[in-house]
Design a protein that fits this description.
- The chain contains no helices and twelve strands.
- It is mainly β.
- The protein has a six-stranded mixed β-sheet with strand order 2-1-3-4-5-6, with no helix packed on it.
- Strand 8 and strand 9 form a beta hairpin.
- It binds zinc ion.
- The site of zinc ion has 6 residues, from loops.
């Protein structure tokens, strides 16, 4: 399975109230400023064809606003991209529900896995 570095992962922090939903990249060390992680999907990671789509996760206890999507807050431990472990698992296979019609649309990505010691499993 690919490592976080192979997935071009980077730690991120939010840009603040002026740009809700946006974030900036903070590098590969798990510093006090880090609030989350950005990486390419391990399931759709292809060394030949390249990456397809990104995944953003926000960490618990890092001052991330309650309304930041996705709403799950992951417990993160480690010192860098090379030993990062996240709990619980990350499940992208969640249907999207249209807010007006309540119609459920299946997720385009079915990845459900873990980040353990810097590796996506
Ligand atoms: Zn995917």
């Amino acid at each position: 399975m690919p490592t976080l570095r192979e997935l071009d992962a980077v730690f991120i922090g939010r840009c603040g109230a002026k740009a809700p939903g946006s974030f900036h990249e903070l590098g590969d060390a798990f510093t006090p400023e880090v609030q989350g992680l950005l990486f390419y999907c391990p399931l759709h990671h292809d060394p030949v064809k390249g990456h397809t789509h990104c995944i953003v996760v926000w960490f618990a206890g890092r001052g991330v606003p309650d309304n930041a999507e996705p709403k799950t807050r992951w417990g993160a431990s480690g010192t860098s991209l090379d030993d990062l472990t996240l709990q619980p698992s990350i499940n992208l296979d969640v249907p999207w529900v249209h807010p007006d019609t309540q119609v459920r649309y299946p997720s385009s990505c079915k990845w459900h896995g873990f980040i353990t010691k810097g590796v996506a499993t």
